[in-house]
Amino acid sequence: MTKVITDEKMIDEVLERGVEQIFPDKKTLKEKLMSGERIRLYCGYDPTAPSLHIGNAVTINKLSQFQKLGHEIIFLIGDFTCMIGDPTDKLATRKKMTREEILENAKGYQKQASGYLKFDGENPAQIMYNSEWNDKLTFKELIELSSNFTVQQMIQRDMFQKRMAEEKPIYLHEFLYPLTQGYDSVVMNVDLEIGGNDQMFNMLAGRTLQKNINNKEKFVVTLKLLADETGKKMGKSEGNAVFLDQAPQDMYGAVMSWTDGTIAVGFEMATNVSMQEVKEVEEALKDEKNNPRDYKMKLAYEMVKINYGEEAADKAQENFVRTVQKKEVPDVVVEENGNNGEKLIDFIVRAKLASSNGDAKRKIEQGGVSIDGEIVKDIQIKISKDMNGKILKVGKREFRKIIVK
After folding, report:
1. Contact call for residues 231 and 208 (beta carbons, < 8 A)
2. pLDDT in tens, 101-139
3. Which of 110, 190, 305, 371 lies 20 to 30 Å from 160 when distance is taken between CA atoms?
4. pLDDT at 373
């Protein structure tokens, strides 16, 4: 039987590190954890893309902290909720996805999350799919579930208010998203749900259903979003995401592109260094004599080490020093197949060197793309056979050898 750790200092750190709010309150949750009772908790991940990113890593890391205390962890893949599309913070309806697309995206999630979370050993995390129960819901049951909420509760959400002000449509199925996410808590009968602070509404919906249907208290822990000093999030929509399946050198370089204001919060939320060390970094960054680059390099190193191990982190750091600081081409360059006549912009996005076509276009317009040292100026340029074997450079650190089919 898994041993539950009740060390007060460890529990306090888990309940404070990167945490924004706890419902109903921290005191009650701490008492439950101190009692030695083994609780069941989860976080859900909708497979909207084939790669988990650093924002997901923040919640996965928090799950791992509870796992180390001996609690039961569920890594929930939202293959049903993903078909609805989470409207949170979205000013337009999400594009609908098929179950096949969703399951294809989710294929690598366990491997990508395993740097933080353990899926084997004495207390392995469980993987569950919410289609298992949501596919079986009858229309009658759905109506009964929906009777726990009012239209006023749903319509008051910020993104819906903004859409109405801009006369953009709000579809009925979007109202059902928090209801469906909340039902996950009921079926899995969890004690706690973890998520970013932008998921508070959806998580509290589960708290309501758990209380009304199972007559059980469900705790909710919201985490701070990984953002810079201006509030800009690190993520796909901002074009500054770190993907958990990126090659080690690319992950290292992506972190190095972050602003200095993300260094301390990055250490706190996406690494396992002690909070004492986090505080030391915070203090060091206040001293103008210290170069923030040095601490950012340590942050990048720590993140690569978590996901790929110490040896890979060493090589990624050596690669960064050689290619960026010393401006050399790396000894080994990842090959990327391209099609004759394919737009370079599409090639760059497919190679994960840009988050979107718009991002790739901006990189070219800003002079950040070159082929064999020659800056690319034409955004319409296409891959051609004479590019075979040439080195594409995007930004200061990303290199690919173009292989033309």
Report:
1. no
2. 999 999 999 999 999 999 999 999 999 999 999 999 999
3. 190
4. 75
**Tokens (6 digits) for 226:** 């990984």
Burial group, residue 5, by CB count within 10 angstroms (0-12, 13-18, 19+): middle
The band of 209, judged by pLDDT with boundaries at 50, 70 and 90, is very high
Q: How far is CA 148 from CA 142, 179, 206, in A?
A: 11, 9, 11
Is 16 strand, coil or helix? helix
Q: For residues 257 and 315, what is the distance between their CA atoms, to the nearest angstrom?
A: 18
For 40, the 3-state DSSP assignment is strand
CA distances from 325 to 290, 372, 391 (A): 18, 19, 19
Helix (H) or strand (E) holding 188: helix 172-188
User: Which residue type is seen at 136?
Assistant: K
SS3 (DSSP) at 102: helix
- Torsions phi, psi of 212, nearest 5? -75, -35
> Rg of the chain's alpha carbons, rounded to an integer?
23
β-pairing verdict for 219-223 and 19-23: antiparallel
Q: Which amino acid is at 198?
A: D
Q: Which of 16-20, 284-288, 315-319 has the highest mean pLDDT?
A: 16-20
Q: So what's the pLDDT on residue 124?
A: 97
Q: For the chain, which domains are there?
A: 8-223 (3.40.50.620), 248-325 (1.10.240.10), 335-404 (3.10.290.10)
pLDDT tens readout for residues 145-169 = 999 999 898 888 887 888 888 888 8
Tell me the residue type at 310: E
What is the three-class DSSP state of 157? coil
